[in-house]
Amino acid sequence: MVFIIIFFFFISINSISNFSTAVDTLPTNQKLSDDGATATLVSATQTFVLGFFSPGTSRNRYLGIWFGNVPEQTVVWVANNNNPIPDSSGALILTPTGDITITHTHTHTNQANIVWSSNSSSPRINNPSLHLLDNGNLVVKNGHSFVWQSFDYPGNTLLPGMKLGWNLKTKTEWYMTSWRNENDPSTGDFSFTYRLDILGLPTVILRKGETVQFRTGTWDGTRLGQYSLSDLYYMGVFKISLVYNDEDAYFWYQCLEASTISRLVVTHTGVMTVYIWSKNKNGWLDTNPIQGDHCDTYGTCGNNNLCNAINLPPCECLDGFQPTSPLEWESLQWSSGCVRRKLLNCSEPQGFKKFSDIKLPDNSRILGNRTAMSLADCEEACLGNCSCSAYAWAEVVGCAVWYGDLHDMRLYYSEAQDLYVRMPKSELNGPSKTGRQRLALIASSVSIIIGLVFLAITTWYGFHAMVARRKTRVIGNEESLELLGDSLELPIIGFDELVAATNNFSDDNKLGAGGFGPVYKGILTDGQEIAVKRLYSFSGQGIEEFKNEILLISKLQHRNLVRLLGCSIHGEEKLLVYEHMKNKSLDIILFDPTRKVQLDWGKRVNIIQGIARGLVYLHRDSCLRIIHRDLKASNILLDEDMNPKISDFGLARAFRATEELANTHRVVGTFGYMSPEYVMRGLFSEKSDVYSFGVLLLEVVSGRKICGFHSNEEHSSLLNYVWQLWIERREVDLIDESITNSCCFTEALRCIRIGLLCVQDRVSDRPTMSNVVLMLCSEVDIPQPKRPTFTFHSLLDSDSKSRSSRNEITVSITKGR
């Protein structure tokens, strides 16, 4: 009995001196030591862990907090970041007066020195305790109240629930500071700080030392730059909230799903980015930096200048202003900015010109609150002060004004904020264009220029190509001429020449098979590599479809359309000769688990944009208006650089200039890619191709086939699956895991939204391909998609290899060529 008592007494003494049990609470005078044991605090649900660690390759020890529910150690807070411990002798103790201290014991003297303290000690505190909460907040509790909390002292990471801003009464500031580098969490001389500036209109600023690197749009109470409060659902993962009242001015964010693991980080290289943990991919998803483009670099265009991210050059003087140094502008140097064409003279009549959809300038000053001044009062007050150069109205603070030059402005292409710039009456003629009006003007101008350039190029090319063909190509058989007509401006290659080129159509030369026949690689006598499509005699593509493809594609020239080099007819044989594509068709690589890694995110973006541009050319910019009608992964060929080229024009239809919609009694195409109005009523238009493009876009992002879902799976098709992820705000789970390391997730999620928009049931809800290209290549707003209810269920069986015709719908095989 005595032995048992002594044993338990020894155990209790040992627990006081070395507290290592995995609990979330540390009472006073108990020690959490870094002695090689698992001495940690673990939050109740094991979401976060507090303990000692060494970052990267460093041997120094720090007390920090990291995620407990992800396999790789990801530190979110460090206590002694500027006072490292050189060995594992560190210990944490909570004093009876509520002060957290970290001590380091010297090896030789055995003396413990304090290296860090929370300075939260108070004689009024009774029986405090230290708790690690499930949100990652380390708190000292005195009863039910918090005496101290780590959330008040952010490091390089902001977690959901943490604040960035100010307590206006106590003048306490919550701001982020980057680590010196990946192996050193200390505050460096040139560390980046991310903090809320409240001297004027609230705005969040990233500084390197004292130099501003980046500034968000201003917060006017209803909008943060170009985003309204209702829009601040970042990537569908979390919501940003903004607080501004007499006591506080801060922003914070919350995850929309409790299971989401995320963090906002300012890196040691000065990049603000959001990381989201993906359980499916077992890794952090590094999203696009908050600094989106070159116009987000602070002061890119100097004073009195608007930065336009899609313009070349990007800088544009405000109306009524001109370059300070035209010579510098000619050499693409804009830092000197712009000056007024006519200097202001307060004795002359003046007014204000409105500039809409912009990022308001830096260095605003609040003139009066919203209860004391109206917009008209703000204008009058600015006009009455000769030094006031501009004003704006902000719901959160009231009247904001600017004195002198206007700095760090940019143009947005969605509804943003208005600025009223002081002008002489003589400079007030004509309204200034909004960002959206400028975008429309730019888009139309670019289309006209591209069209004119393309027309000139194709005219020159067509003439010289025709002459060259007549000089060099031997017309090989009269049967082809008889069937196709002698007006055809396309080489007719002898059948025997194609037999020789393909080694008698041997299986070794076979590249693949489409719905209308196999494709073979060949080499002509002059050494040119070709791809020969040998049409099945039973394929359903008769002489009319054959002629149709030849007549259409021979008139088309675009870098994203495959080139037809020639054709041949020999008895029942009908053959088309194309340029050879080294990487065959998109489906062969995209849907192959081992080969898909060749398509990183950059290549996939290039493929998506290339296909889109090719369709814009077909629909709007070519000499004919073409509807492809069979756009799918197997009809996208890839050259040696993975550039996409649309192929297979056998089912394409040419439209007259005034024709928008056509009807057919014979519906042809591939299940899953065909639009509802085409399948159900035989109606097709440009929007039919848009639907097919949307399906293809979602396949490229996900790496999954539209018909790659089996009957025992929860979802009947890719569209059902995508929509379910969309409504659950889990779109990130759609992204192909093979591109996790290369993916820009904001771009990918933008593509998913565009894809959903393209597959809308109603034709009018789908964008044109011109709009698709604009959405892919810029930051214009994307409308909210509706649920795409049109799917094929049992008809979409990826294991089915048969060709069939039912209810006048022709189903083509989805195997690659």
Which terms summarize this structure?
single chain, 817 residues, alpha+beta, Agglutinin, subunit A, 5 domains, 8-stranded mixed sheet, 5-stranded antiparallel sheet, 21% helix, 28% strand
Beta-strand percentage range: 25-35%
Cα distance spanning the termini: 85 Å
Classify the helix fraction into a percent range: 10-25%
The oligomeric state is single chain
What do the pLDDT scores average to? 80
Fold-level CATH name of the largest domain? Transferase(Phosphotransferase), domain 1
Number of E-state strands: 51
Number of spatially distinct domains: 5
Low-confidence stretches: 1-21, 443-477, 792-817
**Global structural class:** alpha+beta
Largest sheet: 8 strands, mixed
| CATH class membership of the largest domain | Mainly Alpha
| Fourth-level CATH superfamily of the largest domain | Transferase(Phosphotransferase) domain 1
Q: In angstroms, what is the radius of gyration? A: 33 Å
- Using the alpha-carbon principal axes, give the shape: globular
**Which CATH architecture of the largest domain is right?**
Orthogonal Bundle
Strand order within the widest sheet? Answer: 29-28-36-32-37-34-35-33
Explain what you see.
It is a single chain. This protein has 817 residues and is of the alpha+beta class. It contains 14 helices and 51 strands. The strands form 14 sheets. An 8-stranded mixed sheet has the order 29-28-36-32-37-34-35-33, covered by helices on one side. Strands 15-14-24-23-22 form a 5-stranded antiparallel sheet, with no helix packed on it. The model is unreliable at 1-21, 443-477 and 792-817 (pLDDT under 50).
